[in-house]
Amino acid sequence: MKIGTLGAGTIAQAIARHAIRHGHEVVLSNSRGPASLAPLVKDLGARATAATPAEAAVADLVVLAVGWPQVPDVAAQLPPLDGTVVIDATNQFESPPPNVKIANLGDLTGSEYVASLLPGARVVKAFNALFARFIAPDPRHEAGRQVLFLAGDDTDAKNTVTGLASQFGFAPVDLGTLREGGRLIQLGGPLSALHALKQD
Description:
Blueprint: E1 2-6, H1 10-21, E2 25-29, H2 38-44, E3 48-50, H3 53-56, E4 61-64, H4 71-76, E5 85-88, E6 93-95, E7 101-102, H5 110-117, E8 122-126, H6 132-135, E9 140-141, E10 144-152, H7 155-168, E11 171-174, H8 180-185, E12 197-198
Parallel strand pairs: 1-2, 1-4, 2-3, 4-5, 5-8, 10-11
Antiparallel strand pairs: 6-7, 8-10, 9-10, 10-12
């Protein structure tokens, strides 16, 4: 599979390393341009390349992992995403810690808002509820596998993300739709930052 990342920070890099380790190709992008990613691409190896966000978005699966204030600008740069599976790994921090401010989206969940900016995309909320430093290592532990909560409105898209996360070694747990499940794992939800292991 070819996986594109919109953003190249700690979460995108953690997912990219898992993907490359399991034979996938990764196309990374950020707001500063492909040249700024040259050291990272070199570190990741032959299966990694750098591109613009628009180019990264034509991959088989796309990971959205940018700061919340950048989401509308990134979405505006993308080509039509008809049918593309997009993992929404964002959190609606209007301002990050230590002066946390959570964006007020009214009745919408964060991922419903993201989906509204990406017409045609099949959005799956995942990888947002875990701290990046716990995404990066092998998720298989002596006591069990790291649980990965996910939510989405498209069953096939969720199956794709579930399969990928399982390949990485995570224990995916489907929480339902972007509305019900997304609310559980977004900022302020009861499962946000809840790190758990599933015993096999």
